[in-house]
Amino acid sequence: MFPPDFYAVVLAGGRGTRFWPLSRRTVPKQCLSLDGGPTLLQRTVARTGLPPERILVVTGPDMVEPVRAQIPGIEVLVEPSARNTAPAIAWATWEVARRGGAGCVVLPSDHVILDEPAFRASIAQAAEVARGGALVTLGVRPTRPETGYGWIEPDDGPDGVATESQSLDRPVRRFVEKPPLETAERLLAGGRHLWNAGMFVWTTGALLDAVHAHLPGTAAMLDRLGEGAAIADVWGLSDATSIDYGVMERAAHLRVVPVDFGWSDVGSWPALLEVLPHGEGGVSVADAIVARRADGNIVHAAGKLVALLGVDDLIVVDTPDALLVARRSDAQEVRLLLEEVERRGLGRYA
Amino acid sequence: MFPPDFYAVVLAGGRGTRFWPLSRRTVPKQCLSLDGGPTLLQRTVARTGLPPERILVVTGPDMVEPVRAQIPGIEVLVEPSARNTAPAIAWATWEVARRGGAGCVVLPSDHVILDEPAFRASIAQAAEVARGGALVTLGVRPTRPETGYGWIEPDDGPDGVATESQSLDRPVRRFVEKPPLETAERLLAGGRHLWNAGMFVWTTGALLDAVHAHLPGTAAMLDRLGEGAAIADVWGLSDATSIDYGVMERAAHLRVVPVDFGWSDVGSWPALLEVLPHGEGGVSVADAIVARRADGNIVHAAGKLVALLGVDDLIVVDTPDALLVARRSDAQEVRLLLEEVERRGLGRYA
Q1: Which of A18, A66, B176, B248 qualifies as a FRET site for B280, CA 20 to 30 Å off?
Q2: DSSP state for residue B141 in the 8-state scheme
Q3: Distance in Å, alpha carbon of A179 to nearest chain B alpha carbon
Q4: Range B6-264: architecture per CATH
Q5: Tens digit of pLDDT for each residue in B146-195?
Q6: pTM, to two decimals
Q7: Which of A309, A322, A323 sits opposite B337 (nearest CB)?
Q8: Domain chopping of chain B, boundaries
Q9: Cα B107 to the chain's mean position, in Å?
Q10: Which ipTM did the prediction report?
Q11: Contact status of B302 with chain A (Cβ, < 8 Å)
Q12: Which residues of B touch A314 (CB under 8 A)?
């Protein structure tokens, strides 16, 4: 369980074009249901198990309406403009401190976590570590040589790999940002590195101290907020950088808690293969699927019968006004397709 | 042009499951728009260029409503039950005679004809031949070794192929029904045989004479109609057989008019490749298509943007409640898929 004096800070500012045509300009990824149930944002909030008054959601001005509509009763902090994650997280942590909270659990709103009890146990463990003064990051055990993530190298001491303590928290030696494939393969094979999933736990004091040490502009913003300034008037003072680069890679006292709770950042359509149960023809969200000689497909067509015949490894996404049929291995190009849609004057579908 | 004393008899009784999910139990193929414009039935009627009072449409009891709704002002003869084409055509020809018509042009309602002026010229030519007393069938120049059609062998006289008279009408020597592939390849290579497209032209007298000669039950039905009986009471007297088997293959005086007017029976989804203009990603009916590395696809998604990415040779058919994605080469199995839909208790989609 979440410790009773911690708050959840849910980051809901992301856009995400890779889930087009389900995601749109006005419907970002975190506001989607990828499995036909509650949306990713709603699940993120529910997964904390916290009462509404101990949750803060941060989002951008373009997305306030869909975000607010999905989580009635939960306070939404609206960034005046997009300045990357560090200003938003610093502001939210400052707001938690102002409310008397001891610490924060920072959570992206557009990820999937399959094992919720394990998730809450990891949060409890991380909060205990955070009470010692460290900035704590959750480290997901890697399952593939992913080049799109940051990797965390734990400091296992002079003896190297400490296999008996793989689930214990450890200091962070360094971060490896988006490594090339050979490096990622080496990190995976080594068995020591973990994925940085963007989930952080800290006391408000530890984070605000680190902000003052490493992000002077952001610290100035927080000082002015403390003097009663409005966020819109001081937001521009903040350092426009990510929490990883601006704080985590510079701070002295970092620890990582290895976690294993069925995490996926569902970065594009093929990731649904990891998070939806395999059924006829592949994985699907639909009213019904009828398939003949079809496998490995990813189908999202809420409310419809979908018939698949002799097709493998496709992405099929149906919405009321747009339909995508793509080869699964080309999923990264959905963004290019969306650019083409806009270039062709079809922005009403974007 | 149609001769001024001939009627068009449009056969609109077919069901057709091969265009599922666009075609449904209640929406047979002839009632579909395959190209986004008027339906096949509407185009068949319009193509004759005749005033409504010189057109008779024949259909079955299950399809009266959609058929009538599409062609207001045109008389629809309703078969009391399905007894194949011969009773329907005999009855309609009898009705034409009763109205004082000299002859009939019998036309299926679910075919596509691209060159309408050529079509009308062929009809005029065939009507002139029919005035000589022959039953005339239109013979489509074959373009592939099709095993699903009937082929017509013209009688080219003792000299064999009469190349200089390929567009002239000739006697019919015999019909070759649905030949095996090797035979079809031989017929195609020989250059003399023509496809039986189910389009017939005759005087009412010639056809009614042939019915009396070869279909005694049907002749009895017509006699009873002449005595004032209701069709429902005498329909069961008719011989339940096709016009090809019951009349054409038995009649003595048959002639074929070779035609070349861009005919297709659009027997399944892949036939749209022949009748729709090739565009981005293949052929399509959609609000817009955006494609990257996609070709040979057949897309029917009226009113939607369809995005194709890295996919070739697919059939993609979207309807408000069902979506089909099939490999083009598997099109013949759409019927099996539809059977599976019904077997699974999903008949509301059938």
Answers
A1: A18
A2: P
A3: 28
A4: Alpha-Beta Complex (3.90)
A5: 999 999 999 987 655 555 456 789 999 999 999 999 999 999 999 999 99
A6: 0.87
A7: A309
A8: 6-264, 270-349
A9: 6
A10: 0.87
A11: no
A12: 311, 325
